[in-house]
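Contributing new records

If you add data, match the layout below exactly. Sequence lines come first and carry their own label; structure lines follow with theirs. Keep one chain per record. Anything else will be rejected by the validation script.
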Amino acid sequence: MVIESMYSTPVPRIGISLNYNNDNNNINEHSEHITTALRAGGIISISQNGSKGSSGICKSIDGKSSGTVMTLQSLSINLPRLAYQSNNDETYFRARLALMIKPVLVAMSMRKKAIADFIRKGIVPALASSTQFRQFITTNILINLTGARESVYDILGYNADNNGIEVLQKVLRTATDVTMEQGKHIGEDSVGIAMIYDDSAERFANLDSDKYGKISFMSPQKLNNKPAYSQGFTLNGKDLFLSDDKGASKINECISINKLLNGGLSVMLDVSDLSSSNTEIKNAIEAASQLQFFRPNLKLLVCNGCGKRTKTQFIENCEFCKSPYLSPIYL
């Protein structure tokens, strides 16, 4: 039984991270409960065999990991700006990306050493309290790529019928190879490239709007009704039920990109385009269970009158107070 108070605001920010063993396919046993929690406004991330963290970050890079992992990821690269400044030349774009990675890794390595020094001096009490903390921890350095799809498809001009997927994979392969090579040069083995969600999507879009005026050279995504670049990989629920194996090709595209990114890939499964019944959402979650990590996402509506969240997005009036003033939110 779902308690009515679950549909009241504020929007929850506490989520549940689920790990499952794909060999036993046990996600199917709990997909009904996952769907119910999702439709009630729950924030859920699903990882296969515990290989990813709650945001899609790999827990180990190239198998180098201890029991405890600390990941430094506070730096993202604005790929749309790089592509725009590359005169629509894919080769030049990849060259500029490679040149940018080296100073980025040097800066992150310096930050890593500074944090280690702070721990040693006791400036970070939460970490310095354990005398054996530094001996058993593995520290990863990740660089996040923001706006990869806009760069390849909107600015460079490729599409699904014009080698768009191949070019995107080539860009990611270049970034990963250069990162690992440059990491060895500066004495950092645990470095990687990731495509995850952070606050840079909206921030970069706003910065580019200020620099170039209205962003007319691409179609930015929407984050809380504000322009934002794409991050990670987004799967629409209906795409998984397409005929002619198109649904399977979407899953395989995610899997191939995940193999290229040694730092992690966050896949968002947007089920907002499915019906309000549990069946379609449940089937979409089960279809996405082949992925190492994904987060089901559902757009809900909040009533501006009574402040309650609706149980479905396919309505025009609040089901509680009948107000027509509804605001969409993504959990």
